[in-house]
Amino acid sequence: MKVLVTGGGGFIGSHVVDALHDAGHEAVVLDRALPGGQDVRDVSAWERALSGGVDTVSHQAARVGLGVDFADVAAYVDDNDAGTAAGLLAMHRLGWRGRIVLAGSMVVYGEGRYRCAEHGVVRPGPRSARRLDAGRFEPPCPVCGGDLSAEPVGEDAPVDPRNVYAATKLHQEHLVSAFVREHPGTSAMALRYHNVYGPRMPRDTPYAGVASIFRSALEAGRPPLVFEDGHQTRDFVHVSDVARANMAALTAPVDEGFVPVNVCSGQPRTVSDLAQALWESMGAPAAARPTVTGQWRAGDVRHVFASPERAADRLAFRAEVEFATGVAELG
Questions:
Q1: Residue 47 in contact with residue 24, Cβ under 8 Å?
Q2: Are the C-beta atoms of 226 and 271 separated by less than 8 Å?
Q3: Tally: H helices and E strands in the chain
Q4: Which of 101, 300, 319, 328 sits most deeply, having the most CB atoms within 10 A of its CB?
């Protein structure tokens, strides 16, 4: 199998390339960050890459993270939306047919799944600045204002992107889905990654994930700064498991044209759990013990963790790397 991997020099993409090579497949890499690399926004670069007998496409290239502020909006749309559109246009022009695996994200859900004891499953709206300033971080029931319990979110949950990055990741899905509908013989999976961590995480950038930001702070002898009260929950999944999920998605049979699939560990952890585990595994001094700040960021959500059942059913995939083992690697 010959696979075009966009972003193949990046964090997740490089692990996908390694997994392809280990399985005896050929990887063609399109990544502007590599020497002599090409930009995914360049339709002609896509055409050149696809023209060499590519069977499947693993579209990992994207601008990630929440950004610094709304001034990043044009850069996110340019890289994520326009870059995806350029690839789909190239496929259309060439008459390319095959499987597309899109690096999606759990951010498309917004908040996760919540249940009210009185009103059942509900969808809380964005948390107000007034509540957050008062340290009331849990979203209330939108019907009665009562307490909610968080549950695993499945792929059929309504989408509710709450920041620019999330909006572009959802638009990528919409573009790929539209392409598949209009091009018989193609199929696609959007792998909705949860919080990916592991070797080759980006360092020292505000666009990195929380695990990378915490590790950089500890390496500098500073305490990781944990926002809110630290009890917000996420699903941390190791990058080697994510690469395995990609390998399965590139070859798995798909009945429908476009299928979203959560890629997760199925084991939710709090952000404080992550900070504490990193602090312990790195042997950092007491002065660098994680600090819970009570600060909050607009666009952040409280609880989002996933059901792994569709990945198990469609891809025969379940994560294998235990949280403690994976975090200890980072130390």
A1: no
A2: yes
A3: 11, 15
A4: 101
Closest CA to 305 of 249, 263, 275: 263
What tokens were used for 39?
């930009």
- Identify the helix (H) or strand (E) that includes residue 189: strand 187-193
This prediction's pTM: 0.94
The amino acid that residue 68 corresponds to is: V
- Judge residue 71's burial from the number of C-beta atoms within 10 Å of its C-beta, 0-12 exposed, 13-18 middle, 19 or more buried: exposed
pLDDT-based confidence at residue 330 (cuts at 50, 70, 90): confident
Judge residue 36's burial from the number of C-beta atoms within 10 Å of its C-beta, 0-12 exposed, 13-18 middle, 19 or more buried.
exposed
Handedness of CA 59, 63, 66, 72 (dihedral sign): negative
3-class state of residue 104 by DSSP: strand
Each residue's pLDDT tens digit, 59-96: 999 998 877 688 899 999 999 999 999 999 999 999 99
22 to 191, 224, 243: CA distances (angstroms): 21, 36, 11
Mean pLDDT across 24-49: 92
Contact 146, 117 (CB under 8 A): yes
DSSP 23-40: TT-EEEEE-TTSTT---T
State the DSSP code for 153: B
Q: List, in order, residues 6 or more apart from 189 with CB less than 8 Å away.
A: 99, 100, 101, 102, 249, 252, 254, 258, 259, 260, 261
C-alpha to C-alpha distance for 1 and 249, rounded to whole angstroms: 13
Classify burial at 74, counting beta carbons within 10 Å of its beta carbon; exposed 0-12, middle 13-18, buried 19 or more: exposed
- DSSP helix, strand, coil percent of the chain (3-state; round to 5): 40, 20, 45
CA of residue 266 relative to chain centroid, distance: 15
